[in-house]
Amino acid sequence: MNDATSHTVGDTLADFKFVVCIPARYASSRLPGKPLIELKGKALILWAIEAANQLGAEQVVVATDDSRIKKLVEANGHQVVMTDADHQSGTDRIAECASIMGWNEQTWVLNYQGDEPNIPLANVQQVIDLVKKHPEASIGTLYQSIDNLTDLFNPNLVKLVTDDQQRALYFSRAPIPWAQKEFRAPKSMPSDIVYKHHVGLYMYKVDFLKRFAAAPVAVLEQTESLEQLRALAMGDSIVAAPAVAPMPHGIDTAADIERFENLN
């Protein structure tokens, strides 16, 4: 059993004890078999694992539902567990991984997205600082500002609104908050509000993961297809901050693959 629990104010990545779980589902509506797609001769999941290994976590574990992914990860000397193929969300998959690994309830777990390799170290440090600053929160996460209407109205980019204490009020695929005057015939971004694009980097404890996996799927979660809304429906607090460094673009399309290969 791993105990990744203790931390103090001022911890660096090397001081803060945590584990990393990379959910790697084979099926993808936009890019089937995404974890196994090769970028510059290396499978995407291996790019993610190698990047996560640089974070100083006590363990880095892939949670998959596919024997092909498991075989590849093991063949390259990394840790992987098989999980149920029918999980509603990546967080449900990570909850099963935590159970398989025997992580205790106070273990901090970083949900590292397998299709977003090269997440800046500064942003991981920021999530750690966030959960330390807000011990009442069940989840720490990040966002980036949206500066154009195309992104704002893109349902594949999840939007977020927060209160004045950085707590999430709602997540949506719709452009929120709705600017009643400007959006009647939208031509430019409203200038008096920061629109927030949620970044899928999460830090939470195993005790939350257990409660999350045991809770019923929320109506709003099903409606928006956003797992974060289950946590809000449960009454848990999600604290979010603006990412200090630009997040890499996720790999969802052939164009994303080309972009990644040009940058790496």
TrEMBL record:
Pfam families: CTP_transf_3 (PF02348). It is found in: Membrane. InterPro entries: Cytidylyl_trans (IPR003329), KdsB (IPR004528), Nucleotide-diphossugar_trans (IPR029044). Keywords: Nucleotidyltransferase, Transferase. GO terms for biological process: carbohydrate derivative biosynthetic process; small molecule metabolic process. Its main location: membrane. Its EC number is 2.7.7.38. GO terms for molecular function: 3-deoxy-manno-octulosonate cytidylyltransferase activity. One of its GO terms (cellular component) is membrane. NCBIfam families: kdsB, PRK05450.1-5. This is 3-deoxy-manno-octulosonate cytidylyltransferase. It comes from hydrothermal vent metagenome.
